[in-house]
Amino acid sequence: MTAPSHELAADAPTAVPHHDFRVHAPLQHGIPALVPGLLLSAAIAGAGFSLRQLPGLAVFSPMILAIVAGMAFHNLIGTPHRAKAGVTFSLRRVLRLAIVLLGLQLTAEQVVEVGARGLLVIALSLTGTFLFTVWMGRLLGVERKLTELIAAGTSICGASAVIATNTVTRAPDEDVAYAVACVTVFGSIAMFSYPLLPALLHLDAHAYGLWSGASIHEIAQVVAAAFQQGQQAGEFGTIAKLARVMLLAPVVITLGLLAARRARHGGHAHASAKAPLPWFIFGFIALVGINSIVTIPAEVRTVIVTATTFLLSMALAAMGLETDFAKLKAKGLRPLTLGLLAFVFIASFSLTLVKLTS
Predict the structure, then answer these.
(1) What is the pLDDT along the chain (358 residues), one digit of tens a residue?
(2) Do 62 and 48 contact (CB within 8 A), yes or no?
């Protein structure tokens, strides 16, 4: 998610499972031990912002560029061992803070602007896409955790949804990177292809904006595609996308409850006491409520949006620093096929709903 407002595990220190979010291992080493990894993640996040200034790269969010830069750094140079604690901290604490702050970019009023029919289209598209992707993942033989990440990224809000969902899914880093790659590739295809279709599909500005907001992956991609058809389409597409982002909270909470249920039924000790509920999501909801009541000055809002995007970029940069290309390659083409099918489904299903409700 990026401005104007845009939906992790890492290798923890020795003896701590790299996907266990209940353990706050980085803090055991003290604040100084976090500095190298935090600086490295921040530097790569800054590089993501800088790369957008290059010709042709402005259409990509800093988050996407940050994870690509992080992956390149890790696989070409190597992530220093002394940076591990700070990188892990970025993937856990920094990520959660950023998702909470996303609440200040959304208001209840924006949801109301979409209207009952628009909300119905968005909710049905999200739910239908998530369930379809999970079902298709089983048929294709894709691992459940990776399937859930691709489903969340496609149905909600791209990379942000992937890394937020992984706080309860707890997939390996390579799964998260693969899911981010999927939603980036197919979201970019949508971003470039959607503006060519309104006349062919007989969509007015309102319908096209709703279709874009309900189906394109990243908010930056929605903005780029929707505004190609004018101000009205762009503004409504953005608002529709923000309404879709608000559904991130109930989806992640639901997945957390399901994960806890699976753990209990699987006979894991103390599963109920350590249910992976994403408590930070309630902070996100609280800030949405505050933002709906309190008017935040435009200049302050701009700072918040930029800071939030930077923190999310840090988290994805850290993800890149933990991603091994060899492990990504080992995943094969099945997850990519799943991402393609999910993309085709949400595009066609949401378009059908827009047509039926227009």
Answers:
(1) 444 443 333 333 333 333 333 334 445 557 788 899 999 999 999 999 999 888 888 877 787 788 889 989 998 998 898 998 998 888 778 877 887 887 887 788 877 878 889 999 999 999 999 999 999 999 999 999 999 999 999 999 887 788 888 888 888 888 888 898 888 788 888 988 998 899 999 999 999 999 999 999 887 688 778 888 887 888 788 888 878 888 888 888 888 888 777 777 765 544 443 444 556 777 888 888 898 898 888 899 889 989 988 998 898 888 788 777 777 677 888 999 999 999 999 999 999 999 998 7
(2) yes
CB-CB contact of 341 with 91 (8 Å): no
Any residues with CB less than 8 A from the CB of 163 and at least 6 apart, and which?
A: 8, 95, 176, 180, 312, 315, 316, 319
CA-wise closest residue to 313 among 163, 183, 155: 163
Is 244 in contact with 156 (CB distance < 8 Å)? yes
Which among 166, 164, 129 is positioned nearest to 146, based on CA atoms?
Answer: 166
Handedness of CA 356, 248, 48, 20 (dihedral sign): negative
Residues 6+ away with beta carbon under 8 Å from 138: 144, 147
Q: How many residues does the chain have?
A: 358
Distance CA 110, CA 285 (A): 14
3-state SS assignment for residue 142: coil
Alpha helices in the chain (DSSP H): 25-28, 31-51, 62-76, 84-89, 95-101, 108-140, 144-152, 158-169, 173-193, 198-201, 205-215, 219-226, 231-246, 248-265, 280-293, 298-320, 325-330, 334-357
Residue by residue, what is the 3-state secondary structure of 162-216?
HHHHHHHHCCCHHHHHHHHHHHHHHHHHHHHHHHHCHHHHCCCHHHHHHHHHHHC
Supply the DSSP string of 82-119, one letter for each residue: GGHHHHHHIIIIIHHHHHHHGGGG--HHHHHHHHHHHH
Name the DSSP class of 24. -
DSSP state of 6: -
